[in-house]
Amino acid sequence: MADETLEVLKSIDRKLSAVVALLAEQALRTAEPSKTRARNLDRTLTDQGLTGAQVARLLGKSPQAVSQALLRQRKAADSPGSRSARTAGSGEQEGASNGR
Fold first, then answer.
1. If DSSP codes are grouped into helix, strand and coil, which group holds residue 56?
2. Mean pLDDT over residues 75-100, rounded?
3. Mean pLDDT for the stretch of residues 4-14
4. What is the mean pLDDT of residues 15-43?
5. Residue spans per domain, the chain
6. Distance between CA atoms of 51 and 100, rounded to whole angstroms?
7. What's the rounded Cα separation, in Å, for the pair 20 and 4?
8. N or C terminus of the chain: which is more exposed, having fewer CB within 10 Å?
9. How far is CA 38 from CA 6, 26, 32, 86, 98, in A?
10. What is the mean pLDDT of residues 26-32?
């Protein structure tokens, strides 16, 4: 029973973290739109610990669409000239989405 409670609490924490991340991102875009980079909502939510299926449900997409969006974004980040490709050698590489 304690394990079930812990899992429920972890799930709530992930979802609240996702909400906070979305609110912070929106506030940054509103405050300084020219200084914030566009960020994919799929990645924002998976970076906060939500699964692809959870993101799909929240955004009204299929899990496959979320998976494809994350894959495209990873490929774009790995391409020559991207920020993460330029900074990978300096230790400033962006965080991965943990494959979720």
1. helix
2. 55
3. 93
4. 76
5. 2-85
6. 5
7. 24
8. N
9. 34, 11, 12, 18, 20
10. 75
Higher-pLDDT residue of 29, 36: 29
The answer to whether the Cα torsion of 23, 97, 66, 16 is positive or negative is: negative
Torsion from C-alpha of 65, 9, 19, 40, nearest 10 degrees: -30
**Residue-level pLDDT at 38:** 54
Nearest 10 degrees: CA dihedral of 37, 11, 62, 94?
A: 30
For 2, other C-beta atoms within 10 Å of its C-beta total: 6
17, 49 contact by CB (below 8 A): yes
Contact 14, 50 (CB under 8 A): yes
